[in-house]
Amino acid sequence: MKNRSKQITMIGTGYVGLVSGVCFAKQGFSVKCVDIIPEKIEAINSAQPPIYEKGLDELLKEMVSTEMLKGTINTEEAILNSDVAFICVGTPSKESGEMDTVWIESAARDIGKALKKKDEYFVVTAKSTIVPGTTDSVITPILEAESGKEAGKDFGIAFCPEFLREGNAIEDFLKPDRVVIGAIDERSYETVRELFDWVPKETPILKTDLRTAEMIKYGANSFLATKISFINTISNMCEALGVKDVYDVAEGIGLDFRISPYFLRAGAGFGGSCFPKDVKAIIAAAKKANYDPLLLNSVIEVNKRQPLRLISMCKDVIGNDLSGKQFAILGLAFKPDTDDIREAPSIIVIDELLKNNATIKAYDPEAMDNMKQLFGEKVQFTESKEAALRDTDVCIIVTNWKEFTELQPNDVKTLMKTPIVIDGRKTVDAETFLNAGVTYRRIGLKK
Ligand code: UDX
Predict the structure, then answer these.
(1) Could you confirm whether domain 307-442 is CATH 3.40.50.720?
(2) Residue 16 CA, ligand 1 centroid: distance in Å
């Protein structure tokens, strides 16, 4: 490991701050992770990640034991002893979908106060996803007011978006498709650029202005979300027009190099902490600036309706009256290998079933505790997929966890009252289930 001279402060130890912090430490930078919640800092300093992410456990242990990474609640001390700060606090949505900058503002205030006492050159870099113009209109003015210094003259400003997928975050950080650095001036750019001297030679490093970098992040997430709503639209048309299987159609579409095969998996729609929030935030920002992004409005609308197609499929099979019917819901997390249920399609499915007075047994390998907080007694949470399936009328698979792909026709035939499977994610093989006499329906598959 190289011993690099630059020292880094991460402000906010959520998903982005902590993963980026341990990865920078792994590259030989001395990293301070700052948070306002003391319990989080204690956990970090005893090498217990406060979030679950593949590989984070071991990496954090290594970085804490080698003292390459330290947690602290003292922003000032961290700033005074570092060269660059990354703002990695949350940017939650307001009721209107608009981005809430409350945490960004308080982080900027804390950094600004410390900057006042700092003699050496310093670069403040935002990493949180913020709508174009936020660095200019929110972060810089606060930093200048609190520090009494001038951006571009006394200190630097940059924006460096993250493109981390939950469950793949460490790999995504260490082997990025690209690094984007938006900067106020050359010196800010060069300072941040130096922190990425370890990326593989072939990795493009983009140098832009601040707003361009801010927009790249929204553009990337909006495009990926659009791709999903697009393939779901194609899928719904396949069902309407009697086309055999949208997955065969997607293969044919994705072989065009201009399109690529990725993010063309039709299903119950996208969820998670980024796509829904970010697309709504950029729509709200555009509308405020008098532009109505019709395409993105539709991306959200298609995605909101997509989970309900699973309910329509149920009704198509067992009739419109779902009251008193017993449902098994397999999969609650917004995607496999996470306990995250934020904006998960399963929530829309469960809500709708409850509205229809159905009873629900649900199982997920990781996300049940989170879901219990949302639905409490209204849903019966079970210890296994088998227990969820037992004596039910219909099984709906919402998340394609690996353990659900191992489901056999015999499992549903012996456990369920009636072997009806509605698959929201191409989790099991249609032919195997249909040939075994299971009533099997799937998003995008001809009935
Ligand atoms: C995403 C982006 O990929 C990442 O770059 C960004 O920084 C944060 O948001 P993440 O939310 O972790 O990452 O999940 P991702 O793996 O991208 O999946 C998002 C959602 O889309 C999931 O609900 C998934 O099930 C759904 N999806 C994805 C589809 O329905 N079809 C697909 O083809 C791909």
Answers:
(1) yes
(2) 15
